Amino acid sequence: MLFLLVCGVVVGWFAANHRSGAAKPKPPERTEHLATTTALLTAVRDMARLESVSFHIEKVIDLKDRQPRLRGMVQAEDSILLVAAGDVVAGIDLSRLRDGDVTVISTSSEVRLQLPQPEILAVQLDAKRTYVHSRKTDLLARPAIDIETRARMHAEEDIRNAALDAGILERARQNTGHTLSALVRSLGYEHVAISWGECAAPCVQPRIDPK
């Protein structure tokens, strides 16, 4: 009797889910398949950086790959318009501190710091806000496989240069001084004197000219 009851439940469920005329779910128009590979650790590096300022900058990169055709009579183009957004981070590398760069004068409750010059620590494109707006390949042109990669490289260079022009290193110097002064005073010292180490003239990081 129990066997017949179980069989009845199974048959009833099968009929309910497979009755003729039942609406079937519509298959998705497109699916995404991601083939993952094994991650390979190639380097481990200790970091000792004080990031004191970040600039968010947006740029539009119009890159054209010109290709002479018909013995130079026609200039075919493969072009890309990239809308790029990125962040530039500046600060100081604390690993460059040397013996004697931090001096404590206990009699006057003073700390003297000689810090390395601020520098650009990172330039990174925002993956969510960086995208290809348009791509156009002339009839006689060959698609340049690496054109998007080159456009992204130009975007990073332009964003870095824009941050330098906007005074990111000076802002990093000011913010670093305020941060470390507050930190030292919180340890009980009353006076903080900050000086900056030597650097090559001019004392700014050079711009990168586009290739």
Please state roughly what percent of the residues sit in beta strands, choosing from under 5%, 5-15%, 15-25%, 25-35%, 35-45% or over 45%: 25-35%
**Major sheet, described briefly?**
4 strands, antiparallel
Q: Specify the helix fraction band.
A: 25-40%
Helix-strand makeup class: alpha+beta
Return the average pLDDT rounded to an integer: 83
- Radius of gyration from the CA trace? 30 Å
How far apart are the termini?
Answer: 85 Å
Molecular shape:
elongated
User: Which residues sit in consecutive blocks of at least 5 with pLDDT less than 50?
Assistant: 2-7
The ordered string of helix (H) and strand (E) elements is HEEEEEEHHE
β-strand number: 7
- Count of separate DSSP helical elements: 3
Describe the structure.
The protein has 211 residues and is an alpha+beta fold. The chain has a domain at 49-56 and 88-130 and 144-196. It contains three helices and seven strands. It has helices spanning 2-17, 147-165, 168-186, and strands at residues 49-69, 74-93, 102-105, 110-115, 119-125, 131-137, 191-196. Strands 1, 2, 5 and 6 form a four-stranded antiparallel beta sheet that branches. β1 (49-69) and β2 form a beta hairpin. The protein starts with a helix and ends in a 15-residue tail after the last strand. Mean pLDDT is 83; it is low at 2-7.
